[in-house]
Amino acid sequence: MNSRHRLGTIALMAWTMGAPVLAQTSGPAVARITVADGIELELSVTGVRPNGRDLEPRVQVQDGDVYRMIVDGDGYARFAYALRLEARTGGVELLFRPVRLHEAMQAFAPRQRTYVSPFRLDSGLATFSDVQSSGTIRPGDSITLDLFEQRETGHRVGDVVKVTSVSVAGLARLAALRTRREDNRPVLTVAGMTIRRAGRVLNADRPGTLATAHAVGLGLGEKNGTVFFSAEPPQTEVPYGVATIDGRVLRFTLDGVEYECTGSEPVGPPGLSSVWMYVLREPLPYVKGFFVAGGDSVDVLMNPRRRQ
Predict the structure, then answer these.
(1) Which of 240, 244, 266, 265 is nearest to 254 (CA)?
(2) pLDDT tens digits for range 220-259
(3) How many Cβ atoms sit within 10 Å of the Cβ of residue 103?
(4) Could you give the CA distance from residue 170 to residue 35 in angstroms, rounded to a whole number?
(5) What is the DSSP letter of 284?
(6) What is the pTM assigned to this prediction?
(7) Sequence-ordered list of residues with C-beta below 8 angstroms from that of 45, at least 6 positions apart, any chain
(8) Where are the alpha helices (DSSP H) in 109-214?
(9) pLDDT, tens digit, for every residue of 157-209?
């Protein structure tokens, strides 16, 4: 069966571009990629017209996840997203999720000793506002994504993602690839945290108050909610932002207010300087106020009732 699916239009942040660069563009730019041996996708840019800004589609595959970016002729990033393929009964499911700036930098940075920025920005990085799903599809099926508008021409630019081949052996290889990645999953630690909000001490834990896991959480008091952190790519929950790590210090901004959390132990492994940050406004069952939490993933921590 060969079918096409269209995902809904995404509301994008405003984007201000420089003077247009004229280019003669004919036909979609097609990228054929291998997610794992036996699993292949085809990505095609649509909506590009002659005399519009020249666009350069880029794609990278890391540990079974696909990172996509559209860059204009001046090197400015116009849109980015990540794609994850999951095995389902009768086919596969494609999950399209937002990409944050530090993740895009890591995915598309040149593999060399000296750092060179892989793209330019004149505003925030445009990406999806939340996670979107294709539902269960099969080889030969295509998904159409509506990404952004070419201001010079008024045309909508999109991506067509086609599943060209999926094999049982390929799905097994993909699962093994992710298992190997999980064996090296970074562990975070929140221990004896002193939490400062706008420079003032909000709470100071005893040194023995700790949580260490692949995902950790901090209760900021009943009025401020709970924040969760993980160094792993988002799955279902959409990140609120990014927190920075400097040894034993964790820094982030919530509702426009700066927080600094200093612990008795290093927050992450050496070299880890930033983590994904998630926010839960409603109270968690069984705990309230100031507390620490740890779990296998942010999804597990933020949705404890799913385990019951």
Answers:
(1) 240
(2) 988 899 999 999 888 888 899 999 999 999 999 999 999 9
(3) 22
(4) 9
(5) P
(6) 0.59
(7) 28, 29, 55, 57, 70, 157, 158, 159
(8) 168-183
(9) 999 999 999 999 999 999 888 777 655 778 898 988 999 999 999 999 875 57
